[in-house]
Amino acid sequence: MHVTVNGVRLFVEVLGPKLVPDGPRMIERPTVVALHGGPSDHAHMRGMVERLTDVAQVVVYDHRGCGRSEPGDPALWTLDQWGDDVRGVCDALGIEAPIVLGLSFGGFVAQAYATRHPGHASRLVLAVTGPRYDIDLATEGFRRQGERDGPGRGETEAQAYAAFAARPDRETIMGFVAACRTLYTTGRTLDADLEARTRTNLPLTLDFFARVAPAFDFTEALAVVETPILILGGDEDPITPPGCQDALERALTRAPVRRVRFANAGHMIAQDATEAVATELRAWVAG
Predict the structure, then answer these.
(1) Tens-digit pLDDT profile for residues 30-74
(2) Dihedral angle at the C-alpha atoms of 259, 262, 268, 273, nearest 10 degrees?
(3) Residue pLDDT, tens place only, 219-236
(4) Phi/psi at 17 (nearest 5 deg)?
(5) At CA 271, angle to CA 136 and CA 258, rounded to 5?
(6) What's the half-sphere exposure (Cβ side, CA atoms, 13 Å) at 128?
(7) Cα(94)–Cα(12) distance, rounded to whole angstroms?
(8) C-alpha angle 37/47/41, rounded to 5°?
(9) What is the full DSSP assignment across 253-287?
């Protein structure tokens, strides 16, 4: 379905019931609002959040400009606006005290939301993300992962990523995807069907990495957040390696934080550590 939020129609899916029968009464479950990464669409995280539907209602949507949502004004493809849209989705659907889960790029959006609307969420999950887009850490992350696959490989992957980070365009993103995409998972295997059905707005993606990514930094702003936060990361993540989660922990000076690192897991933690990630998320949501 589509819901109008802050002037654009966003594509929204609701997974699982809010109320479940328990004898003579109805039990109310928490609502998880899931923020996809990319920026692409929600397809790649659907399997991850569907595993929560026995303990929560899950709302997942495509950010403005992404997937099946309307693009709106490209000047509003900003983290401030995407963060305000999280609050807007909740207001439009009558969601109170949501548990907001941000994955990768969605983690940047979750931080924008949390710092612009402190106290609105009951809990937060920041998965495979950091307080800023750290090109140096990511370059070394791709070099390290490339080296795991053979002598001399790491420099090729690091250069492909660095070229894209320095000049995001159609040529450099194709080189980056060809050299680095499989490094997102330690199994080095991607779901071809999932990749094919994921919708990506290439102009938005290039605009984000050229204009938005180099400029934002939530390090200081996160000091206003007091909401309990679960930080998840993979030890073998090339693009948001553990150093990014270290920076999150340091910046969250007022929020209760639980940090979980998954061994032998890359950026796609729900693929590399499926059961362990599901266990942590279900415990956090149910708790």
Answers:
(1) 999 999 999 999 999 999 999 999 999 999 999 999 999 999 999
(2) -120
(3) 999 999 999 999 999 999
(4) -80, 155
(5) 65
(6) 30
(7) 14
(8) 30
(9) SSS-EEEEEETT--S-HHHHTHHHHHHHHHHHHH-
Tokens coding 208: 């984000």
- pLDDT tens-digit map of 8-41: 999 999 999 999 999 999 999 999 999 999 999 9
Residues 6+ apart with CB under 8 A from 44: 36, 37, 38, 194, 198
Domains of the chain are: 2-132+217-286 (3.40.50.1820), 137-178 (no CATH)
- CA separation for the pair 124, 103 (Å, rounded): 11
Q: Residue 20: phi, psi to the nearest 5?
A: -125, 140
**Residue 111, SS3?**
helix
Please give the C-alpha separations between residue 231 and each of 116, 154, 159, 174, in angstroms, as whole numbers. 19, 28, 29, 31
- For residue 263, what are the CA distances in angstroms to 144, 210, 237, 267, 274? 15, 32, 10, 12, 12
Which residues are within 8 A (CB) of 17 and not within 5 positions of it... i.e. 6 or more apart? 29, 57
Integer Cα distance of 274 and 269 in angstroms = 7
**Helix axes 105-116 and 79-93, enclosed angle (nearest 10):** 70
Of how many residues is the chain composed?
287
